[in-house]
Write a structure and sequence with these properties.
Layout lengths: L3 E5 L2 E6 L4 E6 L12 E5 L3 E7 L6 E9 L2 E9 L3 H9 L5 H13 L4 H8 L1
This protein binds zinc ion.
């Protein structure tokens, strides 16, 4: 089966066998990442988020993979998050709409300085 090159974001993915075998290269130094260098941050049915740090140039990236009927699509972005920071960030829950509304109501009803507001919150 023919391979295709997908120049996406700052990383290049090479898909073979309908995307079942995906190689990611560092766009800075062209180093090919090894499977063991990826850290899975999130793994859902058709979407996986990975972190990788290039062993040659030390560039870190977040990689978002989506699996569709005709293969896998990947998007990589360079990040300043190291592996531990990425794990911590992805492990946290997103802020809910209710929490945003609560905060808006708290701020809009408050009279006084922000220093007083933060004292009230703590
Ligand atoms: Zn590199």
């Amino acid at each position: 089966m023919a391979s295709k090159n997908f120049p996406l974001g700052d990383f290049r993915f090479t898909g073979k066998n309908n995307g079942a075998n995906i190689l990611a290269k560092c766009t800075i130094c062209r180093n090919v990442f090894e499977r063991s260098e990826f850290t899975v941050l999130e793994d859902q049915a058709r979407k996986t988020t990975l972190h990788v740090t290039c062993r040659k140039c030390n560039t870190a990236a977040l990689i978002f993979l989506s699996v569709a009927q005709d293969g896998a699509v990947g998007l990589g972005i360079v990040t300043d998050l190291n592996r531990e920071e990425a794990i911590k960030m992805f492990g946290q829950e997103a802020v809910s709409a209710d929490e945003i509304i609560d905060m808006h109501q708290l701020v809009s009803k408050h009279e006084g300085s922000f220093t007083d507001l933060f004292k009230k919150i703590n």
